[in-house]
Amino acid sequence: MKKGQVTIFVVLGIILIALASLFFFARRTVLLPTTTENLQGELVSIRNHIEECVQRGKNDYGLLEIVNKIGKQGGYLQPAQDTFRLWNDSKVSYLCFNIPQTEACYNRLRTSQEIEKEIATEISNVLEGCLDIQSFGQLRPYNIQENERTINTTIRREEVQVTVKAPITLVASNNRVSLEEVQTKLEVPLGEILEVTNDILDAETTDGEFETLFYMIDKKGRIKIYKQRPYPDKIYIIKKEGSPYTFQFAVQGEPR
Amino acid sequence: MQQRGQKVKACLEIIILILTIFAVYNPEQAYAKQTVCCERTIVGETCIQTGQEQCNPDYRSVQGLNCAQTDFCQVGCCRNNEGNCQANTPKATCKNQGGIFDPRADCNTQECRQGCCIIENQCSIETNLECIGQAATFGRANSEFRETLSEQECAGFCQQEEGGCCEKEGVCTIEKRGDCIQQEGDFFQNQHCSRVESCTCRPKDHKRCFEGDIYWFDSCNNKEDIIQECSYDQGLTCGEENGQFVCKSIDCLQTYNSPATEGDGGLRKNGESWCEYEGITGSGTDLVGSRHFRRLCVNGEEVIEPCRDYREQACVQTRVTGTGRGTYNEALCVTNNWEECATTCNTAKDARNNREFQQKSQEDRECCLDPQKSCSWIGNENQGRCIPQVPPGLKFWETKTTGQVHVEDAKEICSQASQECTVYYVKRTLLSSWKCEANCECERQPWIDQANAYCISLGDCGAYYNVDGDYTKEGLETNPPRAPQQEEFVKLQSAGRGLSTEDFDASQYRGLDAVPTKAWIQLGFATLGIIGPKIGLPSISALLGKAIGIGTAATTTGTATVTLSSLAAAETAAPVYTGIAEFATGNAISAANAAAGSTATGASAAGTILAAIPWIVLAVAVFFVIIHLFAKVKEKHYSVTCQPWQAPPGGANCDICGQDGKECTEYRCKSIGQACQYIPENEGTTRQSCFNAGRNDTKSPVIRPLQGKLTEGFQLRNTEVGYDITPEVEIHQTIEFGIETDELAKCKYANQPNQRFDDMISTIEGSSLKTTHSLTKSEGTGGQKDIYIRCQDVAGNKNERDYRISYQVSTVDLSPPRVELLRETDKLPNGVDQTILEVQVNEQAVCRYAKVDAPFEDMGDPLLCDQTPRSNGKYICSTNINLDQTTTYYIRCQDQQGNINTQGIQKRIEKTSELLIAGIQPQGELLENEIVIEIQTTGGAEGGKAICQMQIQGGHWVNMKNTQSTVHIQQLTLPEGKYNIPIRCEDEIGNQAQREVSFEIKQDRTPPKIKNIYKEQGQLVIILNEKGTCKIDTKSFSYEEGTIIGQEQEQFIIGLEAAEYHLICEDAKQNRMQEMVIHP
Which of A229, A236, A246, A249 is the mutation pick for testing B, counting most B CBs within 10 A? Predict the structure, then answer.
């Protein structure tokens, strides 16, 4: 056979393969059957996308990084002026301010509800830059309806739970499925550590001192509290056995 | 090319170094700048001490007070809706959170006390309110609250009602009943899942740890029976070893063995704590730069906790016995209350007479042994000295006060250990040699060593080591120069014995227990029964009397005798003989009288011989008198100046800071070298925090003349090697001159050329690191004077060539002595009648005083003058005087060349009246939270001018905001309540007064009232009893809908158009009066 004749067959083959590919692609997208199962499957992808955005954000800045930052900065993501001290490259917030010429300090009252709110706000910002729900509807035989999104964070003893209430509905010509909320968890004992923090602050606000050893022994060593004294303040670093998570905060002192 | 590259590299390094210095973050800025208390900041924070610009203008802010002292941020208990209580929480913060504020700061209320909350079979530690709230949340009506149960008891209470196996859709887990029911599962109380028919779990499938004990687990991973309880109290917990679960020891088997601490290292029990030191500690011996640490053993992990830096805390430990775990250590970091040890508890040295000295010694001892202080008494029951048990760390590198409350600079603290001593030599007769008769110990080495030990004990002062073993001696200046004995560092480094919680061991102290200072000089005369400081230098007569034979009875040999009583009389009242001639005359007369008195007998040949005896006696008496005529006393002055410790020059070792695993702090960094600079940004990191700022400095200081420091009337002329001073300086004239260096340096001088810097003894201004250095000189001999100066910078670079300052001193002394007063007028505190009249003379002289100015020869009362100059080159002349009213004294002196002052120097000593506090405001009942305390002072040294302090709520004494005058004002914002605020005032010379200001703040709950109402010029005038806002209408109305007629005022005017007006007024506290109808 001559070369030119062979070429025609090659070209035909390529066209056939391309058409076949296009057909299979269309079946999964534009020509996707809009059954409930298929639409639920699409919702799973959207759910995974939301979870991924919550956990990792766009540039690896997601829930884990946010909670870690909360831990390093004493419960604040953006410590305000005159409310923190620089230590070990972190802005460690004062949770108790010095009362001059006394040993005790006054409580700044950082509640877990406030921390939850701050995490929720930050997650919301992260999702703004990360989520792209509508892209899931491109080349699909359905529309995506999104409603207003709300984020709730709950700090529990052993975990931090983020609930993204994002009512999303996939509307096809003959079918519709909805996703109401997506829950993500991060296994850090932030709740339990915040309880320890309150115990420390109770002692610092009344006696001006907290005895770490007796407390740790009382907890059978499951909670470790490390006390540093960068002059003239104190820094408490709290960890739970079996978890790498660290929470640290400062107690303001005064030079003598 | 390579060289060029190296040059560029070097330039870059220098630029980076300079920029790094400027980039240093100063953590003290937060304390140095003016801050206010903001009720709310612009970012929404509450009760923050920050700059005014951060405060939200819609909320309150107060300057000059800490937030806890204001009304809006006063601390109390904050309770939220869930019953959660937080102590010491500011009011505004609590309200911002929507909580309920209770002024009782400790939350010791029924609602806030924690106890065991039992809901169904679940137990937790909550407050009563929280418990009720939780029960409601779970929809349970029944909850029980037991206040007396502890956390462990509470947990144990519910464990008895532990659940069972919960089976749901084939999945079997151990749950509590309540949880299982919630999940709609089947609950099998107190049964293992492996025993439940519908579960397929195999029993005792494997072992695992659970809460420190070893348990069986079934194949579904549910906990079953306990195999072995590992007693945590005995230091055991469940752990895996070689694939098996066993009870493992959680003791710390091998702990850090510090080379500086005795008795550490080895096994430590779980829960044990002990102290770690960096060298010798206690007894005033802690090394410069050192810190105390507390180590703990928790679950097999050794944890280190530093005590507060600058040794503001010390680690103390004790052995605990009689427990189930045998003997072990317990350690704590305790506050080092050192401040008052060397000041408030060392007042005896300022006593003016014997009785006061003894009384103050007793008070000092009681003060020192106060358990609230961290002091140690060195001495006995009658006299001694108080020192800190653990000397504090000081900012020895700073040369001025930082302006912070309660912070004194290191110089002031160290100077308390400076001593002066005068040694007296007596040459009894013409034939005898000079013999030391008083304060001889000041000439011996132990005195210098003890002075240095005392100096060290007050803080980072004196000649001592730092933690790294570098010894410097610039902190102790002696005149004449003598160095203290340097102890071996090895002994100090490894001598860190634990500080005990028992009484301080005074036998460890190696310092001074009786330093013959000016005040203690009489100790040399203790055997004479003359004890008591500040009665001036001893009289020559006393010295000579002692030399000749104190306490002996009067004899007839003609020996001049002095008895105890006569000495005592001489000290308190009689004029002091300063002239040997007078003394000799006096004694000759008494000897002659004694001799004459014994000639009353007489008669025979034996009588002749007997008759000749008086003549023989007379001859012998005259002989002794002549010999004693030449009796002399001379003095030698010694001084020890205790100064802040100086770090070694340079900074070669700066980077070792932190390498031992302990945090590198500014204090530690500065103790390593003078050129060491601290990087606060690296604090807490593993990066280098201490660097050598003088690393690239290889140049020695450049010395130049200091313009503007030269005494008026003189000029300087630059020379190749320094400068000359012209014209000629008069003998004994004081002249001041100086040099400046182009960088921080310390400088020394010598009278001989070509001495190395290290060999020079005389320092300029205590060898402080400065850029300007001045000298004051007064020469007693004429001729050419050359002063050779060399300097050294922080990097250790020294001048290799002298800088010479020369001047000519005249050889002829035609000037009378220059008499100087420290102050022209001295004031005595009210009630004090005795003081010292003291002047300073520029040359050796004889001085006299009188109440009326008269020629020198006619002035009868002498002052006792030094015979050798002090360390400043001056001679001190002084005497004790008693006065009952303000008196002016005139002093004149005569030098050795016979030059006499033709005019008397006036010294006025004033007696002052009592300082009184008058005119205290406010008093009685007040309706405002913002009050102004105002008091007036009268009397005292300056017509009432004083500094007044007040003590709020039992806290420390703080200066009133406007004080240092006769009127003292302080604004406060206080909550409702009764107040008795103590006030104390003191003027410049120590007159004191104390009063209390008492008032009660009540909440204004009464509405305004109409005080007066009348018509005037066709208008209606309404006057209220307080400021208010009033609204009116012509009919009955609600306040919000009325027409406003005035705001925050007391007087209102309305027209008379209507027949009837309805009026409602409200004050600033929103107290509103009832509607009033007015018929004009």
Answer: A229
